[in-house]
């Protein structure tokens, strides 16, 4: 079915006159008549009936018009969206860890938008744990992820873009609250609140305890770091967490970890060999240039 013929059909349906419709379409009347005849032959039913000097839609034509207009609207919207994407505009689906939602991500997005003031770029934000972010990238639900690096993900490219400090948080009435910094081995006697096994932070923290040759007493496992902070404040245990802004508003003591030595990174994650939209590719390159 010819797309031009469908557009001719819609114009004729609204103008109800072959000559006027042909003039508006900038084609000859015989060309318009041939196009409509081709449509009717393909469908096997008349789309128009004569009404004096004019024409009108048949019953089948009225039904067909609704579907054609809806379809053409969708096609036109799709074409416009793709053209915007080709021009560096459109939607970017960005997934990130909740921890990053109060500082790093808003800062990056705001600064990026300032570099593209004339572009219509819409961000759609998604949050989750690293394993879910990676799965979303694989399923093409997200363009870019910012998360922890996961092992054995051969189809995902991980690029470090920011360091983050890990700290120990304890209730303010805890024996360790008197300290100004902590050696991790000093935490072993106390019950701890750990990240769930789905979290990208869990293997990093487990590895820290392996470095000191000790196991830690896990009282609770939780996915969300803000919830961990709240539970520490209520004396459910102590915890190793990222040093995040929300800790300034929770009733806990924050202690820098002096040993063991470690580095914690956040990674830009994309599917290897996947072509991003121009807008998403620009944002990716912007983040790489802004590595902290």
UniProtKB/TrEMBL annotation:
Domain HTH lysR-type: 1-58
Gene3D superfamilies: 3.40.190.290, Winged helix-like DNA-binding domain superfamily/Winged helix DNA-binding domain (1.10.10.10)
InterPro entries reported in the protein's UniProt record: HTH-type_LysR_regulators, LysR_HTH_N, LysR_subst-bd, WH-like_DNA-bd_sf, WH_DNA-bd_sf
Highest taxon listed in the record's lineage: Bacteria
PROSITE patterns linked to this entry: HTH_LYSR
Keywords tagged on the record: DNA-binding, Transcription, Transcription regulation
Molecular function per GO: DNA binding; DNA-binding transcription factor activity
Any one cellular-component term (Gene Ontology): cytosol
UniProt family annotation: Belongs to the LysR transcriptional regulatory family.
Name the UniProt record assigns to this protein: LysR family transcriptional regulator
Record organism: Listeria welshimeri
């Amino acid at each position: 079915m010819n797309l031009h013929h469908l557009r001719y059909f819609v114009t004729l349906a609204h103008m109800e006159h072959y000559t006027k419709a042909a003039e508006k379409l900038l084609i000859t009347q015989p060309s318009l008549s041939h196009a409509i005849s081709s449509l009717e032959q393909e469908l096997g039913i008349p789309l128009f009936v004569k009404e004096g000097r004019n024409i009108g839609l048949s019953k089948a034509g009225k039904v067909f018009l609704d579907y054609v207009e809806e379809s053409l609207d969708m096609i036109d919207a799709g074409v416009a969206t793709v053209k915007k994407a080709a021009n560096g505009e459109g939607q970017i689906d960005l997934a990130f860890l909740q921890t990053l939602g109060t500082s790093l991500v808003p800062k990056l997005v705001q600064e990026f938008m300032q570099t593209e003031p004339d572009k219509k770029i819409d961000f759609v934000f998604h949050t989750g744990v690293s394993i879910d972010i990676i799965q979303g990238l694989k399923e093409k639900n997200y363009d870019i992820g910012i998360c922890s690096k996961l092992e054995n993900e051969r189809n995902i490219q991980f690029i470090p873009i920011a360091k983050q400090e890990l700290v120990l948080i304890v209730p303010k009435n805890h024996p360790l609250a008197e300290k100004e910094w902590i050696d991790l081995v000093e935490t072993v006697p106390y019950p701890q609140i750990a990240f769930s096994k789905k979290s990208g932070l869990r293997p990093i923290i487990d590895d820290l305890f392996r470095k000191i040759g000790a196991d830690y007493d896990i009282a609770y496992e939780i996915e969300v770091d803000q919830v961990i902070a709240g539970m520490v404040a209520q004396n459910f245990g102590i915890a190793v967490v990222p040093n995040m802004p929300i800790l300034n508003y929770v009733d806990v003591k924050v202690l820098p970890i002096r040993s063991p030595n470690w580095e914690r990174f956040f990674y830009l994650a994309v599917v290897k060999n996947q072509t991003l939209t121009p807008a998403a590719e620009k944002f990716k390159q912007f983040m790489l240039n802004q590595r902290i």
